[in-house]
Design goal:
Two copies of one chain form a homodimer. The first copy, chain A, is mainly α and 509 residues long. Among the domains of chain A are: 2-105; 206-353 and 431-476, Neurolysin, domain 3, CATH 1.10.1370. Chain A is 63% helix and 3% strand. Chain A has 21 helices and three strands. Chain A has a three-stranded mixed β-sheet, with helices on both faces. In chain A, β2 and β3 (252-257) form a beta hairpin. The radius of gyration of chain A is 23 Å and the shape is globular. Chain A starts with a helix and ends with a helix. Chains A and B meet through α1 and α2 of A and α1 and α2 of B.
Chain lengths: 509, 509
């Protein structure tokens, strides 16, 4: 019995592997599009990606797949039929069932139409942003919100909040209520912290802006990636206008950066951030490739990995005790008179600003909360598209104390809504919060952490994160994983404590 | 009736387009593998390519495709049923039928096994070549020849030569007898020419070898590509250990080169050669993408395009009248005392050598004829694998007057046999011969050709080749196309005349 079930499990795994191979191919096409593709090929690339999307959907919803799945689990009620599976295999089965139900719930016509409209909308959004013309984008946003609501209806459980099904795509297991409650807990303390910081003397960071030769910046990137344990045999570093990481297999996990010739920290942040994403994908079990046990948990957990490296390591004084002398050596001009303390304060400067992706650690979550609140209102129908710019600016004033001078630096700044990716934004803040509880555990488990960082020893972090996160694949959902890895239920406490303690010290609050 | 047939034609075209999109994706994966892919990803890339090959085969042999085809043409006897198709559409139908019959004739199990064995064999061949150990490769070559013979049996018409079906994959419409007869006609005159040249004083070419900075070589490449009319909006230039061109659509046709820091002409030849291939793919009608009317005719015609640019333009004195001063400017050291006449003789130096890809224009076809004769003997069973090295060396002595000191520079030099690509080699020589008849026509139609080349005007050649070759797609098979484009049946005459006249002058014969 158990033997036949193992055989059935193997069959299901093989079917799933096929779809995963197709997804990997699609990722290579996507990577090429952003880094290498000649500009004139964008139309045919669209056709290629559409074809792959169709094949992937077909493979994931095929009668063969359904049959293989039904042999092991009751698709309707979720009861596992198979005997003698390991608990990891049982977790995988539940993920496979959940993914399958989501995939079949969306009619193929709907999926195609969604892809078509959002593809057009991204072009319109780009132009609207360039011309600072919200009215150009508004009718598309209305169409997209209508589609997103339809999508939610296709996917929603009875009686659930319409935003739940959207969020679940990016952060499985997390509800709107969960996010609401977490964000409420951090919002007031962070606004209070920000207001205290604003009342203090601002730190000096002019030396972070100047002339920093591209080639030296690239070479510093290589050093960091090497030290992190990013193995070039399984990845590569390129350049693109928007940095990203893209993996098609643990043996092929690529990243990109962009070099600002006048900004010292931009590329360094990107390298640590994208490197963190890439190490996660590289660290997934290749034997489980194609099974949920070889997949990342969620976008929130993914972001916890990137932000772990970018902020908890890359904005850490102990880390810079080792790297700042190297940085000074690479860029002597402008840094010669700067000491570690000044540098540390400068890279942690807090200042309300308009653009999320350039925000400091304290204001960053407020950018996310603002978007979450607005997109929830849009989905609930409380907010009309035409009133979005005003609502955006009102919240900016309320949380940050500043008002965008136009929609380009306001509600038109992010690509996500034009892609129909409602429910995505919260994961950016969740990632920071998850990273905080992970880091707290790291500090407990490694009493010598600071000393190691001061010596430039960072490669062990990859092994630690592998043991805590990578190796599980999707065996646990986000909050279960954090409980398993940190030994206690997830809360916002480690995150808020960290921000308050760190910035109290920097700003002498 | 005609209207319904047009509708059916459109349906067939759509089915075929699907397969073409998949082939384009596969080409991108292949390009990435040779240029960008991290080395550790080779195993998963193999899986991705295998998956794509399966999908392509499935699409091309699907019941849907068969039905769409049957509505227009009797698949068994090739009689066109549809009324009111254009003559171009009728040609396309015949190609579709031919391709279909070839695709369904090979059982899927056979295709997979062939892919598996040749994939392994390529690794073994690489090692055998590196270690100069033919015995290592021999058992694989035996297996491959056995598979190739099976393939021939699957594909062969009754009573045909077993090599015919192999050749037909690369040069549709051409038979073993055709090639045999053409090669016999050129072999003796070329050997005679070579022997005369050998009896004369050799030309000086030491100044082509020295130190030529990479960056300047690359920048000279860019100039040439721009002047040829290779539009970077639809392609790109990269580096790989073996140069190649790879197209996934007329809007995405990429090439690679390699830079030898001590050889001035290597990269220039590659650029003109691969550029010629790429211009052909870029010049195919994008509206016909997916139909035979949007495909290249054959490998021989493809090679006629690359060799047209590499040899007929790139080894032409009028061309260098314009470009040699630019070359001297880019690489003053070593060239300052060289005049155009010396340079022209040097780049056309004839010398028997062991490696095909480095051969001059006169010895090149002999390398191909040698391989053709040997592979025909292997397929006919007249030659045993174990006797191959001896047979190779014997022919080298006979045609070139030299003997390889080992198999690395002998029968292990080319990748083709390890890939199972029997029937491929003849197309290299056919390409040169086709190019000669095309060039003869060009000279007739453009009395000012020399003057134009002397002024560096080469962009018009792309338009001329478009009118003569690109625009037809596969409307005609190779020899029909040459007749259509040059106004007379194809013969070897233009080719032999060209070689004799040119080298008589250079060597004062």
């Amino acid at each position: 019995m158990a033997k036949r079930d193992q055989e059935n499990y193997r069959k299901l795994f093989e079917k799933s592997y096929e779809a995963k191979i197709l997804e990997g191919i699609s990722n290579i096409l996507g990577w090429d599009q952003e880094t290498m593709m000649p500009e004139g090929a964008s139309a045919i690339r669209g056709e290629q990606l559409k074809t792959m999307a169709g094949l992937i959907h077909k493979s994931k919803t095929s009668p063969d797949f359904k049959e293989a799945l039904s042999n092991l689990i009751d698709i309707k009620n979720g009861k596992i039929i198979a005997k003698g599976l390991s608990k990891e295999q049982e977790s995988a089965l539940k993920c496979w069932r959940k993914d399958y139900l989501r995939d079949v719930a969306l009619p193929e016509e709907f999926v195609k139409n969604f892809a078509k409209i959002t593809s057009e909308a991204q072009v319109v959004w780009r132009n609207a942003k360039k011309d600072n013309n919200f009215k150009l984008f508004a009718p598309y946003l209305e169409k997209i919100i209508d589609l997103v609501k339809q999508k939610s209806r296709h996917l929603s459980k009875k009686g659930s909040h319409p935003y739940d099904a959207l969020l679940d795509e990016y952060e499985p297991g997390m509800t709107t209520e969960d996010v609401d409650s977490l964000f409420k807990k951090i919002k007031d303390p962070i606004i209070a912290l920000l207001n205290k910081i604003k009342s203090k003397k601002q730190v000096k960071d002019d030396f972070l802006h100047g002339k920093f030769p591209d080639s030296k910046q690239v070479s510093f990137s290589q050093t960091l990636l090497d030290d992190m344990g990013y193995d070039k045999a399984y990845g590569r570093l390129d350049f693109s206008s928007h940095p990203f990481s893209s993996s098609s297999h643990p043996t092929d996990s690529r990243i990109t950066t962009r070099i600002h010739p006048t900004s010292l920290m931009s590329n360094i942040s990107v390298i640590l951030h994208e490197g963190g994403h890439a190490l996660y994908e590289m660290g997934l079990d290749p034997k489980e490739y194609g099974s949920p046990l070889g997949q990342a948990v969620s976008l929130g957990i993914h972001e916890s990995q990137s932000r772990f490296w970018e902020t908890r390591i890359g904005k850490n004084k102990a880390f810079w005790k080792h790297y700042f002398p190297l940085l000074k050596k690479a860029f002597p001009k402008g840094l010669e008179k700067i000491d570690l303390d000044l540098f540390y304060k400068a890279i942690n400067k807090v200042e309300p600003s308009f653009i999320r992706v350039e925000a400091d650690e304290v204001t960053y979550p407020l950018h996310v909360i603002l978007r979450f609140e607005l997109e929830k209102d849009l989905i609930e129908g409380k907010l009309k598209v035409k009133d979005l710019p005003k609502a955006w600016n009102k919240k900016m004033k309320e949380y940050f104390g500043i008002t965008p001078k136009n929609d380009q630096e306001g509600c038109l700044q992010d690509v996500h809504w034009s892609m129909g990716a409602f429910g995505y934004f919260p994961t950016y803040a969740l990632g920071n919060m998850y990273a905080a509880q992970l880091f707290e555990t790291l500090e407990k488990e490694q009493p010598n952490l600071e000393k190691k960082l001061e010596k430039g020893q960072i490669a062990f972090l990859k092994e630690w994160l592998k043991a805590k996160v990578y190796r599980y694949g999707r065996q646990f959902e986000s909050l279960e994983l954090l409980k398993e890895s940190t030994g206690k239920p997830f809360t916002e406490k480690a995150y808020v404590d960290y921000l308050q303690k760190k910035y109290k010290e920097i700003y002498g609050l």
